[in-house]
Amino acid sequence: QAEDGIRDCLLSRGLGDVYKRQLKGGAAVDAPCGADMHGATALYVAASTAGAFSAAVALLDAGADPDAALDGPSRDTPLLAAVNRGDAPLVRALLSAETEPPAAGPADPDLGSAASSLHQSPILLAVVRGHADVAAALLDAGCNCGVLVATSRDPAKPPDNLLDIARARRDFDMLTLLAARGDDCDVRMED
Known about the structure:
Blueprint: H1 2-11, H2 16-24, H3 42-48, H4 53-61, H5 78-85, H6 88-95, H7 122-129, H8 132-140, E1 148-149, E2 160-161, H9 162-169, H10 172-180, H11 182-185
Helix pairs in contact: 1-3, 2-4, 3-4, 3-5, 4-6, 5-6, 5-7, 6-8, 7-8, 7-9, 9-10
């Protein structure tokens, strides 16, 4: 089965049409890619690889688990990988329930990682990376955007919200997006 996982991972690197044929042959979609890849599935590899959108969608359509996390402390998911790369179409596909059966269902828009404070939530990662289109996809999916982050060791300083982070980055597009969603996120310009 590990051999199937390795084959799946290699095929997921942009070879969507070939991979679709493989999936019809019964390839294991959630098999780990190998011991040296920390439990990464083919979907995680596709989400981490530029140009592998069609392969990722084929994997989702075949039932790949969009919330399958890496082994070990990082626990990153395909969604976090796509958010980190700024791949808004793939983020939308991962968050969509409109994949073909036997899809595992949409990714959890709030499932983060304990690896670092940056990866604690997909929306935080999108804001920090400056991916406004990805942040919009996450907000459309109903993510919890009331994220607070301690950015100082001084306990007297209150934690920053997403708007504070976008403001510190001087990211006008993200500021505009978050301000427009202020009521949803409990974020206001005066915060």
